[in-house]
Amino acid sequence: MTIAVAARRGPPWADAAVVLAGLALVGWIVGEVAFLRTFSWMQPVCAGYGALLAVLGWRSARSAGAPGHGA
């Protein structure tokens, strides 16, 4: 939630924080499956959400560096 608020306000580190949060979520789910050796339908949903966050944060960071972008 904190990263969502930060991303909305637009500080320069917000895109990197979103990518990091997405990758952390994916890593957490991979570790959970490896350690617990159980499967739930929520695990691929959460991993997919984390991957989506990482991709969207990365794309946002790339577009922020493009000419003509910004306030």
Short description:
It contains 3 helices and no strands. The protein has helices at residues 2-9, 14-36, 42-64.
Describe this structure in words.
The chain is mainly α. It has one domain. Helices cover 76% and strands 0% of the residues. The protein has helices spanning 2-9, 14-36, 42-64. The model has no long low-confidence stretch (mean pLDDT 85).
The domain tally reads: 1
Strand/helix succession: HHH
Secondary structural class: mainly alpha
Radius of gyration: 14 Å
Secondary structure topology:
Blueprint: H1 2-9, H2 14-36, H3 42-64
Q: Tags for this entry?
A:
0% strand, elongated, 71 residues
